TrEMBL record:
A GO cellular-component term linked to this record: plasma membrane
Keywords: Cell membrane, Membrane, Transmembrane, Transmembrane helix
Organism: Lactobacillus kefiranofaciens
UniProt xrefs under Pfam families: LapA_dom
Record field: transmembrane: 7-25, 37-59
Protein name according to UniProt: Lipopolysaccharide assembly protein LapA domain-containing protein
Length: 78
């Protein structure tokens, strides 16, 4: 049941993100300090969403591994 809930919430968030990205296609200037880059906003948003997904995956993956590690140690001590 928890997996279905996560799937539905993730699908809704992804749909909102896709709609938001599609509606924002004008070019923007990004200042990196030493140089400027002019890109369509859609590219910037897609890259930021992908970076956010990777960061979320790493944090979620870390919790799963810690949980698995502690459960494995508890079983050995019993």
């Amino acid at each position: 049941m928890k997996n279905q809930k996560n799937l539905v919430i993730g699908s809704i968030v992804a749909l909102i993100a896709v709609i938001f990205v599609i509606l924002n296609t004008k070019p923007v200037v990004i200042n990196f300090g030493f140089f400027n880059v002019k890109l369509p906003l859609i590219v910037v948003l897609v890259v930021m969403v992908i970076i956010g997904m990777i960061i979320a995956w790493f944090f979620g993956h870390d919790k799963e591994e810690k949980h698995h590690f502690f459960n494995k140690n508890e079983k050995k001590t019993e």
